[in-house]
Amino acid sequence: QVQLVESGGGLVQAGGSLRLSCAASGSIFSINAMGWYRQAPGNKRELVAISGGSTNYADSVKGRFTISRDNAKNTVYLQMNSLKPEDTAVYYCYAYLMMAPRGRGYQYWGQGTQVTVSS
User: Fold this and answer.
1) Residue pair 91/76 in contact by the 8 Å Cβ criterion
2) DSSP code of 64?
3) Number of C-alpha atoms within 13 angstroms, CB side, residue 100?
4) Which of 31, 75, 87, 93 is deepest in the core (most CB within 10 A)?
5) What confidence score (pLDDT) does residue 34 get?
6) What is the per-residue pLDDT for 65?
7) What average pLDDT does the segment 93-102 reach?
8) What is the C-alpha separation between 13 and 66, in angstroms, rounded?
9) pLDDT digits over 41-92, tens only?
10) How far is Cα 86 from Cα 45, in angstroms, rounded to an integer?
């Protein structure tokens, strides 16, 4: 019923930049929050940045990454600057949304996009 489609991952050298995009489509009434998580091999999935009533960033990306949303397009972006090898991970788009007025909220995840930062 709802899909999150990510794009923009890839390989970049340390110090470089990438921009991730994630578009939500389907039976959406409203989106309460959208954001990005990441998971490196052997690690748990962790929050990178999320935009809802407020915006929050992981300490490790503050000052380097910027999250933004285009509510008209149900799209969230993650501008990643000054990338480091430790930013290498699969990045997952996340949305918490409602499919009907006064309905319950649902969590959705994208399929993930690989970001690799070489040293």
Assistant:
1) no
2) T
3) 4
4) 93
5) 98
6) 98
7) 91
8) 19
9) 999 999 999 999 899 999 999 999 999 999 999 999 999 999 999 999 999 9
10) 14
